[in-house]
Design brief:
This protein is α/β, with parallel strands linked by helices. It folds into two domains: about 180 residues, VC0802-like (2-Layer Sandwich); about 220 residues, 3-Layer(aba) Sandwich (Rossmann fold), CATH 3.40.50. Helix content is about 40%, strand content about 25%. It has 14 helices and 18 strands. Strands 1, 2, 3, 4, 5, 6, 7, 8 and 9 form a nine-stranded mixed beta sheet that branches. The longest helix has 25 residues. It binds S-adenosylmethionine (SAM). S-adenosylmethionine binds next to helix 9 and strand 11.
Length: about 425
Amino acid sequence: MSISFNSFIKLGSNRNLSKAELSQILDSLKIEQVKYQDWKDYLLLNLGKNAQKKLVKKLEQTGSVIKFGNLVFKVGASEKKELKDNLIKFIDEIFVKYFPKRQRQLKLSLNIRTSDETQKSELSEETRKIIRTISQKNSFPVKILPTKKVAYELTPFDYNKENLPSRGVELNLFVIKSQIYFGPTRWVTNPFKDIKQDEERPVRFFTHGTSIKLSRTLVTLANIPFDGVMLDPFCGTGTILIEGLKQGLKVIGVDKDQKCVRSSKTNLHHFSEKYPSREKMKEKWRIHLSDSRKLTDAVRKKVDGVVTEPFLGPFFKHLPQIEEAQFIMRNLERLYTRVLAECKTLLKNGAKILFIMPEYNYPLKRSVYPNVKSICEKTGLTVLEESKFFNIKFPVEIGRKHNVIARKLFIFENK
Ligand SMILES: C[S@@+](CC[C@H](N)C(=O)[O-])C[C@H]1O[C@@H](n2cnc3c(N)ncnc32)[C@H](O)[C@@H]1O
């Protein structure tokens, strides 16, 4: 039995960002080459056993990956007997592995992906029959969780509400070019954790804060070594700083606004209090009140990476006249150039700056944005053009398509 892919990843709604983050993680695991295939909102991968194990552990720190699972066998769609035999073998194994010790029943969810509706109901019927037989043989009741027709599979909310990893498992059957792949889901992101963290923090920006998920992705992409120093020169309420602390970094935040500095301090203090080693945690962060155009007056320490969502210009419901937009953008470009030049003097060699920039898109494909080439010439920084794996070109667009101001993620390098 040959298998060309042994793992799958369900990507987030921003697939490019998700792939860029995954690429960074695989790179940090020292993986040299990855065999992969795009398939709908999934990525099929071929990874060594060790890499799979390490990847699952790392996924908890990602902000844009939804699911990870194993693919344990592949058979031709017409090989009915082989499919049945394999399903019996692997579902039996799953019963043994996930046999819940204290629960009264095993929960299972079926994610069957094929565009052929007849094939879908046949596969569903066949798999359910096998599950029921194995359940009877083991005298252990099983509950097959219903999935909504349009969604096919359980959402991360359902998955975590049902407490699937400890009470059962999601089984996946993917039909890809007349091949059927089968395997269990191993990890799913837990949206409740972020909601709780979001609701619990004392101060939040509702209009110009960076989301927790995006902050986490940005920190991952910066690839700062454990215990290294991360700087956010436009720290606002400290969302990115908290994600840095969660990933084991020391963090420095700077903001020119007194209220923002107070908010960041309140949020980071609240975050530190949750740790048993709270006094040690409080040693890991500093917030300075300063204009980041004079960053080096406030920060004297060398840093291992900069991660920031800067001031993106005024908030608009509708775009201004193009002349006004050009004027705003020239000012932003000046601000970014000065702050990036300051960051460069603090940045260790080879370290990265994750920096979001705005872009105003007008009809007839006219856009107004900062001139990044000029910023590079003036600061001596270079921009990363492509991710190591999956051919993702930078800058990557983030945020929603219909937003008036598009946001683009640039990765600058200090080479
Ligand atoms: C988009 S917000 C940052 C959001 C932050 N990541 C969060 O989630 O709370 C931009 C921040 O930049 C600050 N800012 C604007 N110009 C600045 C400057 N020249 N120096 C330092 N901070 C500045 C603003 O006060 C604001 O808090």
